[in-house]
Amino acid sequence: MNTYTNILLSIVSMLFLAACSDKTREENLNLSAYLKDSSLGIKTGGVKMIEISTPKGKFKVWTKRIGNNPKMKLLLLNGGPGATHEYFECMESFLPQEGIEFIYYDQLGTGNSDNPNDPVFWDLNRYVEEVEQVRIALGLDKSNFYLLGHSWGGILASQYALKYQQNLKGLIISNMMMSAIDYDKYADTVLAKQMDPKVLARIREIEKNKDFENPEYMQLLIPNFYTKHILRLDADKWPEPVNRSFSKINQSLYVTMQGPSEFGLSGKLEKWDIKKELPKLVVPTLSIGAEYDTMDPNHMKWIASQVKNGTYLYCPNGSHMSMYDDQDIYMKGLIKFIKDTDDKSIK
Which NCBIfam families match (predicted)? Predict the structure, then answer.
């Protein structure tokens, strides 16, 4: 009896080892396919400079691809306006192991892209056309193209989707309300009231005098607003990619679009509002909100109910940069949305 038992155990063991070996081989093949650089010509580590056409000539914008997946390609639109792709570097700790290809992209006037130094280029509709040109150059289409816009990038992503959603497989609106008017109201009636009245009064005084270069302005904002609603960590503990990105903000672009104040919008985007247009969006859409964000989390939840195929991700411990201060929930939710959307498209 023991002989038969030993033989059976040996067979089971061999089958188990063979299965493990097959699984390891499959994982290695998947990893090899993900890491393979299939670009032609001289290899650049995934970097591609893309020529774009504008009403005032041609310029080049910088992109960099991480990974290779023909079904899941995520293009990242950073915020600011005027910051850089660099604060998205946290994605490298999460997306590659899930096989999700993602693409960094510095919008015109930012980071490694050309900077024409002319405010006429800082225009939402022009940026929409820029994204479309980038999409075409990268070979993205409705079979693989996911677009994530964070903050100002959320405005750009949603506006792009309203015009070009036929090219999208999935849309992610991260930490951005769909109305500058509602955002202003939330900043004034909710966020401002959470601040020490004396501090708020001094901030308002500086803003009234348009004394934005006064070092006291940031000295008040950092501990009383930034570390409470932008990224909920002590300022000296902010992640290096965030600091690096924010240190490179194109101030001309930022002020032209956003305005100089940190409480609401006063630039070109002051009256931006697409709430009534949201039902036109039929592409699978994920809206991401956070409890301590500068954006109303209830509004972010509402977005998911207005689009035709919406999902809401709530980050209970997060703020505006919830990909850092509520990282586990943010990344798991983002990955789940992309994979669920991919699974549904197969069926």
Answer: pro_imino_pep_2
